[in-house]
Design goal:
heterodimer; A: alpha+beta; Cytochrome Bc1 Complex, Chain A, domain 1; 2 domains; 13 helices; B: Cytochrome Bc1 Complex, Chain F; flat; mitochondrion inner membrane (chain B); respiratory chain (chain B); electron transport (chain B); membrane (chain B); transport (chain B)
Chain lengths: 385, 121
């Protein structure tokens, strides 16, 4: 029913884009979805819980990872075996993912199976058993996935965290390939509508704080040293991406040396320069990894700093950032991230001017991490920040 | 027969009469005199029972092992515990049977999925 509706809607010329429109299900869960521009038979539905690792406390560190691993396990109404076999029969794929902000359970399936999988996700949210024997299984998996999960939280802890996390305000349903009003209707009829509006226990939400620091790892065997410098990024994701592009030493065209200052440096001197960035709801990090022969690492790090970029350089970085964002939005995972942000009401805040953001960020005190011959790698406080 | 069973469970007066008799009856069967629980007697030589036992918590499995050891020792020596050390009725709860039932259903489900035929719509 919804399928035909969605398709007829697509057949008509799209007058207003329904991109990232946010609807509400019957119990107040936010539902954000975007219908495909093509008539693809595929769709996806995700249960996004705003309870990633940043909401953990000292007592329950690692618990978000465990909760992620409890996805698609035994529930009151179906066993984990049944969930997996029925997903196979439907040709669906099930994934669970934990990030710093969110825990995300995703089902990618055919459009007509969406109501069934909305129920499966509803079961995860409201009826998971959190049994002890599964916990032992999961603990092995988590220990394998993350060396940092050295603490041994018990199932009770996971259950308590789940109770606090799985409330309507912290949960969003995100879909692709299906119109958000249609998805909201499905969600209201499924078990997802049974997610409680609030719970006795709540999660603390400490504000993110940037703590600088230095890390040196000694490796005398390697002829090459690596040095990572990271700054506290701009307050919005878009500007942070521009800053990362300013720091990038990558060439976007084949057979040339690149035009950005750091790309030129990389091509002329043979340094490896790779920028990175990560943005969260209230913090971001932007930086560059410099790789060079041991004898030249100090010079490479000192040269790979941008104090005040020219207007043209900034313009190029902005264009490159636009391409990066558009490319990310073309994938299902990219759409999912953007929709989850929209569902939790985090749309772009006032964008700083890229040039002033660069001036501010690249003069702030960075974090430094070095791997290699530590006699040769510079200390952060000698770099003149 | 079922009607009688239901009457025993629902009628409190009937229960008050039957409950002490039931306890005496179970005590006569002897396993409580060796400190065992009823679920310790369930044959464990089957895949279902093995899986169910592997799902017990550490505390339950340790208790089960120590009860088996003590009972075995008493049986070798042709002895019983003194009355004070018999298993109490409230300790003789079903700690394994619900797990066995759960695993049995899971095995049946697995068989059903493995032998099913799909029909094209």
């Amino acid at each position: 029913m919804f399928q035909t509706k969605a398709i007829t809607k697509l057949a008509a010329p799209i007058a207003s884009r329904t991109y990232a429109s946010v609807a509400s299900a019957s119990n107040g869960i936010k539902v954000a979805s975007v219908a495909d521009a093509s008539e693809s038979p595929m769709a996806s539905i995700s249960l996004v819980i705003n309870a990633g690792s940043r909401f953990e406390t000292a007592e329950n560190s690692g618990v978000a990872h465990y909760l992620k691993a409890f996805g698609f396990r035994n529930t009151q109404s179906r066993t984990s075996f049944r969930t997996v076999r029925e997903a196979e029969l439907n040709g669906a794929s099930l994934t669970a993912e934990a990030t710093r902000e969110n825990i995300i359970y995703t089902v990618e399936c055919f459009k007509d199976a969406i109501p069934y999988f909305a129920d499966v996700l509803g079961d995860i949210a409201t009826a998971t058993k959190y049994t002890e024997h599964e916990f032992r299984d999961i603990a092995k998996l988590v220990a394998f996935e993350s060396l940092s999960a050295r603490s041994s939280p018990a199932t009770r802890l996971v259950e308590g965290y789940a109770e606090a996390a799985l409330t309507a305000g912290r949960v969003a349903i995100v879909g692709t390939g299906i119109d958000s009003a249609a998805l909201a209707a499905i969600v209201s009829e499924s078990k997802l509508a049974a997610i409680p509006a609030s719970s006795a226990s709540t999660l603390s939400t400490p504000a993110s704080k940037f703590n600088g620091g230095v890390q040196q790892i000694y490796d005398s065997a390697s002829p090459v040293s690596h040095y990572a410098l990271a700054f506290e990024g701009a307050s919005d994701a878009a500007t942070t991406r521009v800053l990362a592009n300013l720091l990038s030493g990558e060439r976007r065209l084949k057979w040339n040396t690149g035009v950005s200052p750091l790309a030129k440096l990389a091509a002329e001197e043979g340094f490896g320069l790779q920028s990175f960035q990560s943005s969260y709801s209230d913090a971001s990090l932007v930086g560059v990894v410099v790789s060079a022969p041991n004898a030249k690492i100090q010079e490479a790090v000192e040269k790979s700093q941008i104090a005040s970029p020219s207007a043209e350089t900034v313009q190029r970085a902005v264009a490159a950032a636009k391409v990066d964002v558009s490319e990310a939005l073309a994938t299902r995972a990219g759409k999912r991230d953007a929709l989850a942000q929209a569902a939790f009401g985090r749309t772009a805040v006032a964008v700083e001017s890229a040039a002033s953001a660069a001036a501010k960020t690249f003069k702030s005190k960075p974090v430094g991490a070095a791997v290699g011959l530590s006699q040769a790698t510079p200390y952060v406080d000698t770099l003149g920040f | 027969m079922e009607a009688i069973g239901r009457a025993v469970q629902t009628n409190s007066a009937f229960r008050a009469i039957v409950r002490p008799l039931a306890n005496t009856w179970v005590n006569l069967s002897g396993y409580r005199r060796l400190g065992l629980r009823y679920d310790d007697l369930i044959a464990e030589e089957s895949p279902i029972a093995q899986e169910a036992i592997s799902r017990l918590s550490r505390q339950e499995i340790d208790g089960r092992n120590i009860r088996h050891r003590h009972a075995f020792q008493l049986s070798l020596a042709h002895q019983e515990y003194p009355r004070a050390k018999w298993t109490k009725a409230e300790d003789d709860y079903a700690y394994l049977r619900p797990l066995i039932e759960e695993v049995r259903l899971e095995f049946a489900e697995r068989d059903a999925f493995n032998s099913m035929t799909t029909v094209k719509k």
